[in-house]
Design a protein that fits this description.
Layout lengths: L1 H12 L6 E6 L4 E6 L1 H119 L3 H84 L4 H11 L18 H29 L11 E4 L2 E3 L2 E3 L2 E4 L5 E3 L4 E9 L3 E7 L4 E11 L6 E2 L4 E5 L9 E8 L2 E3 L1 H11 L1
Antiparallel strand pairs: 1-2, 3-6, 4-5, 6-13, 7-12, 8-9, 8-11, 9-10, 10-12, 10-13, 13-14
Helix pairs in contact: 2-3, 3-5, 3-6, 4-5
């Protein structure tokens, strides 16, 4: 039954794919292999599928490389925009803080003016009271003088008594005129002092309102800054955790090497005159500065880690980190043509550059924080032992030396001598660029 089906299929395909014979001739005999239409169809289909698979795989690699570059550029632009916005918020916060200080100073000046006006008002009131007391004394004296004059008129009819009484009446009249003028002057000064005090109170109320508005705006800016820096620190913290590091240990190590103090990160202080709102804003500003210091420490630590790609040209991953063929594969393999440039993934010192069993031509670079990177199977070594290299510096070329089945780079990352998955560092690099 199956033979009949094959014969029918060969018969139907024979008009398109006629039977072919492949002759094999030796010295004493000639043989041939018959290629029937079904066999030819299977061969053509296999070749077509293989070629199609090669096209699809190449397209995926190209698209992945292009999308990776565009994603990295977008992340860089986003980070630049965030840093620019952060600088703007910091400048606006400083401007609002300066306005708050200026408003506080104006408020203090206004309070001093009000105090001076009140002092003048109290002095004027005291003077008025003294004048009223003097006027009462003069009026009492005048009444006594009038009584004495009347008694003198009744007792004496002489001209000398009349002349003396007239002189005394004139003196009293002059004294009354002087006291009346002083009273009017004191009343005018008191009225003017009251008006000035009222104006000073109004100005002080306006300044206090402006100060409250500035404090509210400053608090809003500080809140936005606090949210921004908090959001920025979280991805950096996750970067170290993703590569197997304790962020607290990393920060402690970096601070031991960068223990200088002072500069622009000095905590802010204001002349608050006991104002609780400004004290709260000052506390929030100091907390922001602490978080910014943590961000700066993270930035220093990230610059010390190998967070870059060792191969920048087109390549493909051929083997990952983990068990392979019953043994532990302690790195990742990146395949490409012989001579493909290999770059240092972070700043460090070359501690080995030569040939080593299994690795072939090998380069070892010691980075800070106990991290070491290895580059194996190289065709060329471009650095020497003891040489300091920078991230992105070309150190050699891809090859096929040592225990290798084809040209590729064997890339390892070790932390304190223990091999870790290099892909965690490669993925972490995309989170900080």
């Amino acid at each position: 039954m199956a033979l009949n089906v094959m014969n029918r299929l060969n018969s139907s395909l024979e008009r398109f794919l006629p039977e072919q014979r492949l002759f094999l001739r030796s010295d004493d005999a000639t043989r041939f292999v018959r290629l029937r239409p079904v066999t030819q169809l299977l061969g053509i289909s296999g070749i077509t599928l293989g070629f199609g698979w090669m096209l699809v795989a190449s397209s995926i690699l190209v698209i992945d490389a292009v999308s990776s570059g565009s994603s990295r550029d977008q992340i860089i632009r986003t980070q630049s925009a965030f840093e620019e916005r952060l600088d703007q918020l910091s400048a606006e916060r400083d401007a609002r803080a300066a306005e708050a200080v200026a408003a506080q100073n104006r408020f203090a000046v206004a309070l001093d003016q009000v105090s001076q006006m009140q002092s003048k008002l109290l002095a004027s009131e005291e003077r008025r009271r003294e004048l009223e007391t003097g006027l009462n004394v003069v009026q009492s004296t005048l009444r006594d003088a009038i009584t004495e004059r009347d008694d003198a008129i009744r007792l004496t009819d002489g001209e000398d008594a009349a002349a003396t009484d007239a002189d005394r009446s004139n003196e009293v009249s002059v004294a009354l005129d002087i006291l009346s003028g002083e009273l009017r002057s004191a009343a005018e000064e008191r009225s003017e002092a009251l008006q000035q005090a009222e104006q000073a109170r109004s100005a002080a109320a306006d300044l206090e309102s402006q100060r409250d508005q500035i404090i509210a705006r400053n608090d809003e800016i500080l809140t936005r800054l606090e949210d921004a820096v908090t959001v920025s620190v979280k991805p950096l913290d996750e970067v170290f955790r993703s590569v197997g590091m304790n962020p607290e240990d990393v920060l402690r190590t970096i601070r031991q090497g960068y223990s200088g103090q002072g500069g622009p990160l000095t905590p802010l202080s204001y002349s608050t005159r006991g104002d609780a709102a400004l004290t709260q804003g000052e506390t929030k500003a100091n907390q922001i500065i602490v978080t910014l210091d943590q961000m700066n420490t993270y930035r220093i630590a990230i610059e010390k880690l190998p967070l870059a790609m060792p191969v920048k040209s087109a390549f493909r991953y051929t083997s990952g980190f983990g068990r392979r063929w019953g043994r532990m594969h302690e790195g990742v393999d990146m395949a490409g043509p012989v001579g493909t440039p290999i770059y240092a993934t972070g700043d460090g010192v070359v501690i080995f550059a030569g040939r080593q069993s299994g690795y072939g031509n090998l380069i070892k670079i010691q980075h800070e924080l106990g991290v070491e990177t290895r580059f194996g199977h190289l065709s060329r070594i471009g650095v020497k032992k003891g040489q300091r290299v920078s991230q992105g510096e070309r150190i050699g070329d891809m090859g096929n030396t040592g225990r290798s089945t084809g040209p590729h780079l064997h890339y390892e990352v070790r932390m304190k001598g223990r091999a870790v998955d290099p892909m965690s560092f490669i993925k972490a690099a995309s989170n900080v660029q």
